[in-house]
Every structure is written in C-alpha cells, then in structure tokens.
Amino acid sequence: MTRKLYWEQPYSQDFAAKIVGSDGTRVELDQTLFYPRSGGVSCDTGVLVGVKVVETSKEGDKVLHTLEFPASLALGQTVTGRIDWNRRHRLMRMHTAGHLLSALFYSGAKCLITGNQIDVEKSRMDFSLEVFDRTQIEGFVKEANKLIANDAPVKSYFLERSEALKIPEMVKLAEAAPPLEAQLRIVEIAGIDRQADGGLHVAHLNEIGRIELLKLENKGKTNRRLYYDVANT
Ligand SMILES: [Zn+2]
User: Fold this and answer.
1) Which residue among 15, 42, 51, 102 has its CA within the 20 to 30 Å range from the CA of 34?
2) CA 79, CA 180: separation in Å to the nearest integer?
C-alpha cells in the first residue's frame, strides 16, 4: 500500500520516497504526494527523478506514477519528487467549491449529486432536481460566494464507519455508497458540510476566491448539469 503523504501534508510540494516497483515508465513508491485520479477528480502531475509525471493513477491500494520517458530505476532507490503546485491548488479549490455547492443544493432543494468531474480548467457537477429553475441555481452559487467571503476552516479526519453513517447528510452522492472500510475519512467545512471523501481540499474556504457559474444544462427529466470555475477575487 502506498502511504498517502498527500493526505498527511496536502500543502507540501516536495518529498523523498523509495521505489518499490517500476516497469520503467510506471513507478510505484512507498509513499507519495501525488494525488491519483479517482472519484471524478483529476490527478497531480509534476516531476519524479527529473522526469515529468504526466499521470497519476490508482491500482487497488497502490498509486502509480506515469513518466513521460522511461527512466532507469532500481528497487529500493531513494528518489525525490515535486508536484505541480499551481495545478494542485486549483484542483483543491475546485474540489472544495464542489462540496460547498453540493451542500447548498442539498439543504436548499434536496438535490442529490449524480456525477462530478473536478478538473483544472473547469469542473462539472451533475445533479437531480425536479424543476429546472435557473434563478434558484444562480441563487445557490451567490450564497456559496457569500460563505467563501465569510470564510470557514476546512478539515479532514477519520471517523468509525458506524459513527459516520449516523450523520444524515454524510453521503450526498446518489449512487456512490461510502467505501467498505472500518474508518471513513471525513472532509468538513466547519458549520456547513460534512462528507465522506478521499480528496484534497483547501484549509480555508476563502482560498477558493470566487465560484463562477459557466454554464447550466437541462439534461431532461430531472437531470441537470452545471459547469463552474474558480477565480481570484
Ligand atoms: Zn469530494
């Protein structure tokens, strides 16, 4: 299992690790700061042993780093890596913004999230809502931006599964049940939202800046789609 340094130190950019597996281009380390693509969230890129990491993926409980060019690497060798911080921080802002929006959609209209794609350029959120009311949705985005301006701490911690599932709003994803683990990782926007989540988030809401609603689509029946971006204030 790869130790998840990205959970322990989400604001670190450089790290050292040992190679535990490699076929030349796909490298497994004993620990990593590179967040793997998962749960609809894009991955970290960066540099490992001086070579670009173009993709980070998950295979079971292993994190695999895909190098742009093959490198000659020895098992047990200590290497250094650095993540692309600008990309990572945008992904963190986008991800926390998604949680904030989903919390407001849920409390304001009992919307369930049916899909999401958190990415660097723009992010997408699919949700179910009986009546497609543009003004109502724009109102949620406005409210989100007010909460961001007021700021609130965002933290992550672990809870026993049975304890976590007692919290009614814990899992807002319509189809995704929480993973079958004894402990669930919780991401909490203080006073606003709690989610079972494996992702990386900003430590303070105001790091998001401002959420910009890019596009709203009516996908028929009760399916709606929202594209958003985060901008500096
Ligand atoms: Zn999330």
Assistant:
1) 102
2) 33
Architecture of domain 3-83: Beta Barrel (2.40)
pLDDT band at 179 (very low <50, low <70, confident <90, very high): low
How far is ligand 1, taken at its centre, from the CA of residue 82, in Å?
Answer: 23
pLDDT per residue over 29-46, tens digit each? Answer: 999 999 999 989 999 999
99 Cα: distance to centroid of ligand 1 (angstroms): 6
How far is the centre of ligand 1, averaged over its atoms, from the C-alpha of 198 (Å)?
A: 7
Comma-separated ranges of CATH 3.30.980.10 domains in the chain: 88-231
Distance in Å, CA 163 to ligand 1 centroid: 19
Decide if pLDDT at 172 tops 80.
Answer: no
- Rounded to the nearest whole angstrom, what is the distance from the C-alpha of residue 98 to the centroid of ligand 1? 7
pLDDT band at residue 178 under the 50/70/90 scheme: low
Calculate how far, in angstroms, residue 17's C-alpha sits from the geometric centre of ligand 1.
Answer: 27
Superfamily classification of domain 88-231: Threonyl-trna Synthetase; Chain A, domain 2 (3.30.980.10)
Query: Residues with beta carbon < 5 A to ion ligand 1?
Result: 197, 199
